[in-house]
Design goal:
- The chain has a 5-stranded mixed sheet with strand order 2-4-5-7-6. Strands 1-3 form a two-stranded antiparallel sheet.
- It has 7 helices and 7 strands.
- The relative contact order is 0.11.
- The protein has 305 residues and is of the alpha+beta class.
- The longest helix has 69 residues, at 15-83.
- It has helices at 2-13, 15-83, 89-122, 137-152, 176-192, 240-245, 253-263, and strands spanning 133-135, 158-161, 172-174, 199-207, 212-219, 267-272, 278-285.
- It has 2 domains: 1-121, Orthogonal Bundle (Helix Hairpins), CATH 1.10.287; 125-285, Heat Shock Protein 90 (2-Layer Sandwich), CATH 3.30.565.
- Strand 4 and strand 5 (212-219) form a beta hairpin.
- It is 54% helix and 13% strand.
- Bound molecules: adenosine-5'-diphosphate (ADP) and magnesium ion.
- The site of adenosine-5'-diphosphate (ADP) has 22 residues, from helix 5 and helix 7.
Length: 305
């Protein structure tokens, strides 16, 4: 009590102290005002970013459902045709092939969307927690070519796996379902963006100098973007030519592919060869990942190919 009285008295006794206090208060106030204004700006920016993310998420979900519904509707329509029972045997064969390719597309899209939500959630695939296993790339390519061939029939496209010298390349250590999705995405594009009546070539080789295996997938159709190949691997990018010939697309296929190749410490490139064919090349190390992640204990099968 006596202390505060003494203090008051001393302040009254010393007016210059008051002025100093006032100056300090003014300075603190102005600093606070600056900080508040900075916070307001940051808040505005965050709100804008949040709105943008919300908009993108809604568009993404609409895109996902639209793309999944299209092949499922086609399957329904084909089955209706079959159950009417008025089709000849050749027509039945054609309809069944179509059902198969639409089902392949649905499974392929669903896998991509699952990977995409993983990427959206933590901006990386928590992949190295998954088991690595030796993958025979030649065999994988033959299986994928079989799976995707029916998609090419409408445009009279053929997928050709040139197995030599890829068949003598060593197995690479990889997360098989993910690596399989990389090549599925490239093959799907090769078919989608090819001119009718062409061949999609798949070939590759082992490079003993750096102990890597490269697989190339080439096709003749629309050209690569004039602005360079880097944008192809960014999220959501689609060239104008791609949009024109195939409006339903997400621009996520190559983004997912390059994210998967990255976690395998490999390399993915797009180029045009001397014959004007577009070539996607994936290079994977035979054993760079050894010791970095758990190896699959036994040779079990996964539900992916
Ligand atoms: N085989 C190809 N030939 C020409 N351009 C391609 C090919 N594959 C991919 N691209 C280009 O890369 C873009 C991104 O491909 P992707 O991420 O799979 O998305 P989407 O296929 O949905 O467009 C395509 O829109 C296209 O511009
Ligand atoms: Mg694609």
């Amino acid at each position: 009590m006596s202390f505060s009285k003494n203090k008051k008295e001393s302040a009254r006794d010393n007016p210059s102290d008051d002025r100093v206090q006032l100056e300090l208060l003014k300075k603190a106030h102005s600093k606070l005002k600056q900080e508040v204004s900075k916070l307001q700006q940051a808040n505005q920016l965050l709100t804008k970013q949040y709105e943008q993310i919300k908009k993108e998420q809604i568009e993404y979900l609409q895109n996902v459902s639209h793309q999944l519904v299209a092949p499922l509707n086609a399957i329904k329509w084909h089955i209706e045709n079959l159950t009417e029972g008025r089709l000849g045997i050749e027509r039945i064969k054609k309809v069944l092939r179509s059902i198969y390719s639409q089902a392949t597309i649905s499974v392929h899209l669903a896998k991509n969307f699952a990977l995409m939500s993983n990427l959206e959630a933590d901006h990386k695939l928590s992949a190295l927690s998954e088991p690595l296993q030796p993958v025979n790339l030649c065999r994988l390519m033959v299986n994928l070519a079989d799976d995707f061939q029916p998609l090419g029939w409408d445009k009279d496209l053929q997928i050709k796996v040139i197995d030599e010298p890829l068949d003598s390349a060593p197995e690479v250590l990889a997360i098989k379902p993910l690596i399989s999705q990389v090549f599925s995405n490239i093959i799907e594009n090769a078919l989608k963006y090819s001119n009718s009546g062409n061949v999609v070539n798949i070939y590759g080789s082992y490079n003993p100098q750096n102990d890597t295996v490269s697989v190339c997938i080439s096709n003749k159709g629309i050209s690569l973007p004039a602005e360079g190949t880097e944008p192809i691997f960014t999220r959501g990018y689609r060239s104008t030519e791609a949009r024109n010939i195939y409006p339903a697309g997400t621009g996520y296929g190559m983004y997912i592919a390059s994210a998967i190749v990255d976690i395998h410490e490999g390399n993915i490139t797009a180029s045009t060869d001397e014959n004007g064919r577009v070539v996607f090349t994936v290079t994977l190390s035979v054993k760079r990942l050894a010791g970095k992640a758990r190896l699959r204990a036994a040779k079990g099968s996964t539900h992916y190919r």
